[in-house]
Amino acid sequence: MGTRILSKAWEVEDVLTNVTSAKLSDPTGAYGIKRNDLSASTISGGTVANPVVITTSAAHGLSDGQMVNFLSVVGMTDLEGLNYYAKVTGQSTTSYALYQETGLTNTVDGTGFAGAATGGTATPAEVADGTAMTNSATGIYQYSFTDTAGIAYTAYIEIVYAGATYHIEEDLVARPSGASVDWIYSELRTEIADFLGWTRDSANWSSDQGNRLDSILNAGYLQFIYPPVIEESGWSTARKRGQGPGVAHRWSFLSPTATFDTVASTYLYDLPTAFGAMVGDLVYDEDEDESRIIEQVTPGMIDKHRAANDSEGRPYQFALRPKTADMTSAQVTELMLYPTPDAAYGIIYHYDAKVDPLTEANSYPLGGQAHSETILQSCRDIAATRYKDDPAGREHALFLERLRASIEYDRRHSPKTLGFNTDGGRITHTRHGSQFSVTMTNNLG
């Protein structure tokens, strides 16, 4: 089992807008989210006993602890519109006892009910009708629940806005059995193939279809990694002031922290092949007892300083330059330090990482569980555009909706600043050879 996050964005004229209410509720009032492998059953009997035992006209398919909603009940009207929990153990494929909670501790005592049940509908529910969604940000409503691998779900969202009520059906695709809630390479390929009608069995795919799946998957992955600009509430005003929007979101998980140790008398260092761009300046490891920031300058400035004075010491400037400029191998970025280190120093830096394509060997998309559904929807969007003649259609709208939720999650769970590696006291900032001090205070906001 794993946690699934259902998200809905509400827009008015392309601007995220809060609604009067948002809850999980299907039009009949039977459920908020239901399992697609279970169907409603016709009630054929219900005992006036403790506990109440419900009999169905066909096999119910329930398991212990499954929530059931009762509607149009004949005879035992005390059950009407309520949710109880089934205990199948000790009963049969067409009967179950009723309890008040999923733990099956307290029975539903029917000895005082109006009469025996002789008809009605019993609908399995994963999440009860009327369950409120959380307003996680302006115009964004979310609900999380524990799912079962291999099971698809249907959710109904009821939105009340400007006096009108809207019911929106959401299909939640099955997470493959034995898989985590993080979608990986093979699972994404299966979901895309299923979406395109190519079956879920890879043995049925032609070599050409396999190549197309890889192309769709990685195009969808890159669309997520480098997302389009999305307008949000307040951006219309910003545009009038000439401030945006124009800037796409940059994911916090693409800015890892790395360290390296300098070597005495060496001023050139190769950065990782995954290095894309530096984020901020360099700082010394806390073990170095050095609060000085190593400031970024141009390679030309480093060369100029070295030509004038090639002495060694603690570096206070750095520059970046490509080490290779041909296309026969992956490009490596070279880091230059000035002055040349006179000893081994531990240095910390943050960088934007390059992203490798998803393959069988490189199976796990960056972003993890929190963004897995957005990655899948991005792939469905690409597939619909290429093979279903649906550019900017329903799948694209669903991708943008999921993307908004992922961006909001990333903003709420990332630091406001990468910060300095200091205790919040005075730090010495060296700029072009002259020093000045600023006082830093810890930001606890």
Description:
- The chain is α+β, with helices and mostly antiparallel strands and about 450 residues long.
- It has helices spanning about 185-195, 205-225, 235-240, 300-310, 370-385, 395-410; strands at about 1-10, 10, 15, 20-25, 35, 40-45, 55, 65-75, 85-90, 95-100, 120-125, 130, 135, 140-145, 155-160, 165-170, 255-260, 270, 275-285, 295, 310-315, 315-320, 335-340, 340, 345-355, 425-430, 435-440.
- α1 packs across α2 (about 205-225) and α1 crosses α5 (about 370-385).
- The longest helix has 19 residues, at about 205-225.
Report how far apart the termini are: 35 Å
Using the alpha-carbon principal axes, give the shape. Answer: elongated
Strand content: 25-35%
Average pLDDT reading = 84
Q: How many strand segments?
A: 27
Specify Rg, calculated over alpha carbons.
Answer: 29 Å
Helix content: 10-25%
Individual helix count: 6
Major β-sheet profile: 7 strands, mixed
Enumerate the strands of the largest sheet in spatial order, edge to edge or round the barrel. 17-25-19-20-22-23-18
Structural class label? alpha+beta
Low-confidence runs (pLDDT<50, min 5 residues)? 233-244, 416-445
